[in-house]
Amino acid sequence: MGIEMNVERFAGIRTPFYYYDTNILRQTLDAIKEETKKHDNYFVHYAVKANANLKVLQVINEAGLGIDCVSGGEIEQVLKAGFPANKIVFAGVGKSDWEIELGLDKEIFCFNVESIPELEVINEIAARKGKVATICFRINPNVGAHTHAHITTGLAENKFGIAMEDMEKVIRLAQGMKNVQFKGLHFHIGSQILEMDDFIALAHRINELQDRLEAQDIHMDIINVGGGLGVDYNNPQSNPIPNFKDYFAVYEQHLKVRPGQTVHFELGRAVVAQCGALITKVNYVKQGSVKQFAIVDAGFTDLIRPALYDAHHRIINLSSNEKEETYDVVGPICESSDTFDKGIQLPKTHRGDLLALLSAGAYGEIMASGYNCRRLPEGYTDKEL
Ligand code: LLP
Hints:
This protein is of the alpha/beta class. Helix content is 27%, strand content 24%. Helix 1 runs parallel beside helix 8, helix 4 (97-106) packs across helix 5 (116-129) and helix 7 runs parallel beside helix 8 (244-254).
């Protein structure tokens, strides 16, 4: 049901590497299409920050999704993958001038603006170029999300977006500018959210804000609800497709969409997490005084999520089906946080075995670093191996 891996095909490929099952990716994209097809005003933009591997991007582009970028580098990458510029939304709390220029030159769909100083700079650069930038304001809705503190973004204390109390002021300011066109509002409350109540709270907050704006004769074409839908890291093999049905039903049932409005989504993790695995080789099995360690050739430089967020990735041994034993699975980097999991059961593990860390398609390869002068992992699809 979940990601399929043929270990014979992995022979001779330098580890660690990322492996992407394009069948799972396509099934995921089909599920999104299925749940959104009855709404011709719903637009799903894939949040490329989750995974910018060109081969993965090409499959997503073929499915017709739009795209959500947070840097000029991401804009360049998605254009290379073939995404049309007019499907790009561009968010980010600190856009540099060259990134704004790139967005204007390529005529992207929309800038999600996060502050007055940024609005002024966009207006100024657009004026210089004789262009008009389409903008939405990112509003901080002060809606909490039941997820890890590092990936909660919609609270008043977070650095993101414009405070609700300042909303009218910034909109009026934009309406008085010649080179920006105000089109709507953007929100994002966090990531790896599994409780639909959090999205319901966001939908209700958007309704409130929209009523408030309409009372002042401010109307919008675009409502962008951001991303954040979580995936099942515990049972990726039996539950590989995220709960798109309930997710889109939240907005269908709770968001009061006005005639002519379009609703935009920015899903990252939910699109790509379950199609990817990090494949790593066991270099040593070491008996410590109280523990048994499987020391693998991948480290937090290849997959930082366990070290950074205490994230859990299911680990399976692709090479052994012997009786299970208990292991800590650790990497080679000289820091204790370079631990993928502790006290887990794996079939008896040997030097040379291949392990797969599942659900690693999102925020895996893209967050790899060269710390310790380590090589960046390659990413391959099933079509190549
Ligand atoms: N839109 C905005 C404005 C965002 O900031 C994000 C993610 C997304 C969309 C996509 O969220 P998703 O659907 O993937 O939850 N590195 C962390 C996740 C950071 C998410 C940052 N923003 C992790 O590995 O869990």
